[in-house]
Amino acid sequence: MEFLKVENLCKIYGKGDNQVKALDNVSLTIDKGDFTAIIGTSGSGKSTLLHAIAGVDVPTGGKIYLDGQDIYGGNNEQLAIFRRRQVGLIYQFHNLIPTLNVVENITLPILMDRRKVNKERLNDLLELLGLQERRHHLPNQLSGGQQQRVAIGRALMNAPAVMLADEPTGSLDSRNGHEIIKLLKESNQKYGQTLILVTHDESIALQADRIITIADGRVVRDGRVSQAGKTAGNGRISISRSDEAGHDSTGFEERQVAQR
Ligand code: ADP
Ligand code: MG
User: Fold this and answer.
1) What pTM does this model have?
2) Per-10-residue mean pLDDT for the chain, 260 residues long?
3) In this structure, which ligand is nearest to the CA of 48?
4) How far is it, in rounded angstroms, from Cα 236 to Cα 256?
5) For residue 115, how far is its CA from the centre of ligand 1 (angstroms)?
6) CA of 246 to the centre of ligand 1 (A)
């Protein structure tokens, strides 16, 4: 089911000679519950795309629909509510509040939204994240991996429809990085959340259902990941949507996206 629809998205930063076209007419649709990886070189527009979808960076042109709702179609208040309730954003650096403990950091967005904390969900999440024993610790009493798990907990607490992760493993060693990806995938499966993850790590991208490659603000490749491309023991099977898709040695089935 088509859940997220990005239509002719453009983003231009700056004016005159300093203009940068960060997104150049990007169109794509993402199904509910899908795990999509976005890859591309530095400066290609990955973060800009993610921030536009998250409702934090107003596009210069084009539209984004989530579950049929034009996310920039309403007023600022509606956009703020969209951001708080529909999306969970995870960055490379976790942006935890240093004076708040684990539980307080995770529940902060709910409290700011003046809603009641669902204790059962909180406990579920602490369990999933392996943070039960750390509930009252401050960020500086936690390892980098644990801090990133708190950031994931904060993004998941709202049960957002879409999880957006911008190089969430970038500041972690590879073991902790893979733990974080495992957690994101578990929550993607357990809560049926749509997951969009920006990464430069091919082994992480290959765990996704689909890989979208961005270059110079455009989608240049878009393909499903075949089972062969996934790590052993993963247990998930993804079937290529496109019959004419070609195979390459990594198991990544790709098709060239027509340029304008
Ligand atoms: P990526 O995440 O793929 O590395 P970004 O989306 O951050 O790339 O950036 C895409 C392009 O837009 C780059 O050329 C970058 O310099 C430019 N850019 C990003 N944010 C801004 C900004 N706030 N002001 C001006 N230029 C920006
Ligand atoms: Mg970036």
Assistant:
1) 0.85
2) 94 93 97 96 96 95 96 95 90 87 94 91 91 96 92 89 91 83 88 92 92 97 80 41 38 46
3) 1
4) 25
5) 35
6) 32
